[in-house]
Amino acid sequence: MAIRTDVVRLYRQVHTWTGILTGLILFVCFYAGALTMFKEPLERWITPPAAVTPATLDRAEELVAATRALRPEVRDFTLAVEPALNGEAPLRLTWTEERFDPAPWAATLAPDGSVAVEQLNPSGIGLLVDFLHRTVGIPGDLDIGTTVTGIASALYVVALVSGVIILLPSLVKDFLILRVTRNVKRLWLDAHNVLGLISLPFHLVIALSAVVFGLHDHIYDTLDRVVYGGQMRAVAAASSPFRTVSKDMSPAGMLPPKEFLARVHSLAPGFQPVSLEYHDAGTGAATVRVWGHDPRYLVRREGFVLMGAVDGRIIDTEYMPGHQNGWSATVSAFFALHFGSFGGGIVRWSYFLLGLAGAALFYTGNLLWIESRRRTERQAKGRPVVGPVEQSLATRLLAAGTVGVCLGCVAGLSLTIAAGKWLSGLVDDLHAWHWGIYYAVFLGACAWAFLRGASRAGVELLWASAAATVAIPATSLLGLVMPGLWLSDGLIGVDLVALAGALAFAAMARSAERRALGGPRDSVWAAAGERPKSEMGMQPLAHPAE
């Protein structure tokens, strides 16, 4: 396909600068996003096994009644039914006493009928990776971080479109070609293009949905002023299914949990219940959301049906898989395509690998810009095409920032996951320790990269990332012989993936070492110091990175 040279040049500049402005932000979002696909297994990997006696749903009504008698002020709670249905865990009610409280309370039923209430101490690793994915780790107000991510995602859409336009003239000739030669820049460019083209539909869906997720408050505010004249809340309330819910807060009995599950099964036989979420329990206004999933439909994480807790009537099926109207089904599909909450394990693993590939896409994009700066510097200073040139301060800072941010994120997450199993049961707030370890490693890696320079820090932080990642399976192995540690049953996949990641980081560290010693001397990736004796007196081979 023929496109004018000046048009391609313009889109190349657009692609370059939108990529540079958003690359580091999106690396963190994509790397953490890949881990969110398996945040539940990560939580279980860190949580010590408990000696419990599985209970069936036959005693669910007894648990609800006994808990409400003990804690009558608790009217909003969740009854987990999936573990009980599978015989994996006892029945348990959970609730929070403050909004966004990371340490919920839980009630379980003993064989003698007594209720045990305790405050849980979840590891919090799932919350951490989700927070990083949504806000790139910007501390403080959640809205600030999501807005930054939304703006970065909008620029990300521009980068995707401009990147496709750049590739159109050579798409047929260079499609899926990966040239492994001494020209390192060409290798990185081919890898960047292959990753981008293969995963283009995935990236478009993620980018467009992330714009909506990150900027939805601003979008709604604009719609409220422009379309609804400031009455959007009133319009939404008028169409809400809760308008038909009784406002009677006087005491009232509720149907047993098994009755809700039976009615949902009659409504949708393929629906698999996960939990029952009660609101205003014990009153005439009590409602129950039966959450669950149906692999035949695209839903956002889980769907639910809203029911009256007193009479069991169906109040709303707007989010029930297979019972949605056209608009709700479209919105749910949009969420499902972003979260990968469909298709079971195949889609989950695919999204995990695509997330890692996306992180690599942004990393290689920055490397390409950094390598291209040597030629740009020569042309700007009127120097010949070959020959050494001094790298600009901006180039050296971007190189150090790329190394520090990307590898700091990798090492920080790996180390805090491994540390979770060592600290479990030894610290009061494991959630806070996870966050403290991550930010200490991340900020330390950034400082180290700027102090040591991109070349030395790149090699050192890659080895550090490999060591932090291999600590995950090493901790599991030590659980076989050390008291206080344990080997998590059924979660060997966590250890195997971490081992594969550690080997990949070690291979990258070896490659970076060779590049530092054997590459062009005027590259920001060149080792500071003498060349190996075998290269003394030899000129670089025509700057192969160009």
TrEMBL record:
The keyword Transmembrane helix is annotated on this UniProt entry: yes
Keyword Calcium (UniProt): no
Superkingdom of origin organism: Bacteria
Cited InterPro entries: PepSY-ass_TM
Record's protein name: PepSY-associated TM helix domain-containing protein
Biological source species: Azospirillum argentinense
Keyword annotations of the record: Membrane, Transmembrane, Transmembrane helix
Transmembrane annotation, as ranges: 20-38, 151-172, 193-215, 349-369, 397-420, 432-451, 463-485, 491-509
